[in-house]
Amino acid sequence: MSEAFPDSSQLQQWHEGIEMANHNNIFCHCRSCSYEWVDSVINAVCSKCGSKDIEHISCWQFPDD
Predict the structure, then answer these.
(1) Among the four residues 23, 36, 41, 44, which has the most C-beta atoms within 10 Å?
(2) C-alpha angle 19/21/9, rounded to 5°?
(3) Among candidate residues 16, 20, 12, 47, the one with its CA nearest the CA of residue 33
(4) Which residues pair with 36 in a beta bridge?
(5) How many C-beta atoms surround the C-beta of residue 54 within 10 A?
(6) Mean pLDDT of each 10-residue bin along the chain, 65 residues long
(7) Separation of alpha carbons 31 and 21, rounded Å
(8) Is the pTM of the predicted complex or chain greater than 0.90?
């Protein structure tokens, strides 16, 4: 076990927290037409141009300030 998570249940809780934070919080940027939106799926397709060439960033990674 790592020092940050000495108990495997703590590590599991951390993973569940990240999954919950990602739900409905994935920033998407279409590399084809530059459209941007927030979605809940990693494999989203651009609703403007239909492109699958999408950059995905979990919104919890952005600072709140």
Answers:
(1) 44
(2) 50
(3) 47
(4) 29
(5) 20
(6) 75 82 83 94 93 88 62
(7) 24
(8) no
The pair of three-digit structure tokens given for residue 6, joined into one six-digit string: 């000495």
Q: What b-and-e string marks burial along 13-45, b requiring 16 or more CB atoms within 10 Å of the CB?
A: eeeeeeeeebeebbebebeeeeeeeebeeeebe
Quickly count: other Cβ atoms within 10 Å of residue 60's Cβ: 13
Q: How far apart are CA 20 and CA 10, in angstroms?
A: 15
Residue 56 CB burial class (10 angstroms; 0-12, 13-18, ≥19): middle
